[in-house]
Every structure is written in structure tokens, then in C-alpha cells.
Specification:
Blueprint: H1 18-25, E1 32-36, H2 46-53, H3 66-79, H4 84-89, H5 97-124, H6 129-141, E2 146-150, H7 158-174, E3 181-184, H8 186-189, H9 205-228
Parallel strand pairs: 1-2, 2-3
Helix pairs in contact: 2-5, 5-7
Amino acid sequence: MWPGYTTEKVANLPFTQLHEFLDDQRKEEEAVVVFQLGNYEFSSDLPTALQHTVGLKRRKKSTPSVEAADKTVVAGATASQPSAGEASSMVAKKPSLAGVLLYQLSWRLRCVIVAGLYLLTWLGLKKHEAAFTLLNAACKTNPDTLFIFLSPFPTQGASDTLIRKLGGWIMKRRLHNHDNLLFVDTHVVLVGSQALFIDNSHLNAEGHQVLAEYLSNIYSRSIHNLAVV
């Protein structure tokens, strides 16, 4: 949808090679570089957060194979069937008010702990400072190139979406103000529609279309502004 064409798509480009990559792109007029800043780096799962922040590795759980699991289910089903009384006792009970409040409290406590870990790592310990120093320097030394930074995408889960919003807030504050830098909050662009996702966290064709149209619009306005300046 953008005027022009994609010159190169680079997955996992090391920031140390960024200047060399941009030097090659300077031959192109109105060059645009789009960065996706983190998705899975921000998770509400506490072990995952520890893995991303302090390097704690998760233990892999040993799970039975699908075939073995199927046999277990079949064996259990054929061995005995629950009686009418047992079946009635298996009906899910309505959670108590105390149970709901305890769940809400534990959910909020987990989010606070995870958020604190990410804030400590990305802002306090400055673990990723070198990478953002290179990004900011690239924006400054390439004034004719438009840099578009996308925040971590929303998900269909409330906890992960909350933590990814925090990730976007952190990312935006690690970037300096440049006339050729745009930060896109994808939670505004992709908000409130399950129809844009193929699963819990991946966009479907319609979701990509919505994002592409948004980027196309801001691209056109920003390139015009750069040309005027």
C-alpha cells in the first residue's frame, strides 16, 4: 500500500550492524525503516518475566506424548463410568465472593511484581541502554530517513496486554525526540476487536490490513513534513 517498494526485510538485525545497513539504504529516496519493538519480551507470566529480565531459565516439564495421553483417556473412560450421583457432584460450583476477591488480589499482585521487574531491567539497570543508544544515534545521523517504531502488540489476554502497554511506555521513553522518528502505539490502532486476531496474540489478514492502512497514512504525512523541513 505504500508508494515505492520494500528494499530489504531483515529479521533480528543486530543493532551493531544498524549503521552499515542504513548506509546501504541511503541510496534510496525517502527511505523508511520500521522497527517492531518487542512482543514476547513482555509477558505477565512470572517465570517468563524472570527469564527475560534476570536470565533465570525455566525448567522444561516432561509431558506424555499425545498417543500415551489418548490411551490414558480411553482406559479411564472404559474402566468405569460415573454414577448419577457422582455426575451431579461434578457440576461446576459458582465461585464464592471470597474466592473472586482472592483471585483478583493475586492477579493484581502478580502484575505489580512483573511490572516492577521490567521497569528495573529496562530503566533502572539500563541493561538495554547500548541498543537504544545506537537507535537514537541512527535517527540523528540519518535525518532523511523516516524511523517508525511499533510498540509491542496487544493480545486477547488482559494481563499480557497490560504488561505490553507498559513495554510500549518504556520503549517510548528510551527513544529521543527526533523530527524523523515516529512512535506508534499499536494498542490504539488495534484496540478492542477479536476479529483482528488469528489467536491470542497474532494478527490475521484483517489485522495486518488495519495496521498497514494506519502506517500508510502516517507515512504519507510524515514524508511530506520531512520534505518541507
